[in-house]
Amino acid sequence: ERYPLARLLDAADAVGREEAAPRQRDWLRDTHDGVRYWAAVGLHARTKLGDADRAALRAALRDASPTVRIEAAAALAQHGEASAALPVLAAALRDPSREAVLHAARALELLGPAARPAFDDMRAALATARVAEKAGEPMAMFVRFSLEAALPK
Fold first, then answer.
1. How confident is residue 1, by pLDDT bands cut at 50, 70 and 90?
2. How far apart are CA 153 and CA 30, in angstroms?
3. What is the pLDDT of residue 84?
4. What is the C-alpha radius of gyration for the chain, rounded to an integer number of angstroms?
5. Span 143-153, mean pLDDT?
6. Within 13 Å and on the Cβ side, how many CA atoms surround 70?
7. Of 25, 98, 138, 142, which has the fewest beta carbons less than 10 angstroms from its beta carbon?
């Protein structure tokens, strides 16, 4: 019940399948955050988003799960909607979960110049990561790697 393997596998297997978009939009409303995450990954992987895809991803920007919000924001930003997505990614840089911070940092890194409006938030997260890394927090190093690669020298 806590780990719906069949639904998770279906959602993950649909990534990269253009015909799966209607199911992925439905999965973005699934009760399990893992299914919603794979739905967002699948829409993110599409070469082009339709209006219904964009609407579903915009709704997912308010998901209870940080990883779903981050993946939905990354998808929208990659497909030309950075103004809606960047505030979500910037907020995720302050999430208490280091995994969520890393996911957001990597998403921002992959956006390249489109992430420019979030540079101040990224610099603040980088400073936090450097302190955490010196304190021995292992995930902080990876956050630092992504943010250093994303920010101009």
1. confident
2. 42
3. 95
4. 16
5. 96
6. 25
7. 138
pTM exceeds 0.85: yes
Give the ranges where 14-151 is alpha helix by DSSP (H). 21-27, 33-44, 51-60, 66-78, 82-92, 98-111, 119-134, 138-150
Interior angle at CA 150, CA 136 and CA 58, nearest 5: 100
How open is the CA angle 79-114-85, to the nearest 5 degrees?
55
**Rounded distance between C-alpha atoms, residue 34 and residue 127, angstroms:** 30
Residues 62 and 69: beta-carbon distance below 8 Å:
yes
C-alpha 27/C-alpha 53 separation (Å) is 12
Task: Choose among 39, 48, 44: nearest CA to 14.
Answer: 39
pLDDT, one tens digit per residue, over 94-138 is: 999 999 999 999 999 999 999 999 999 999 999 999 999 999 999
Q: Tokens standing for 104? A: 């957001």
DSSP state of 77: H
Instruction: Give the C-alpha separation, 135 to 116, whole Å.
Output: 29
Report, as an integer, the average pLDDT of 42-50.
Answer: 96
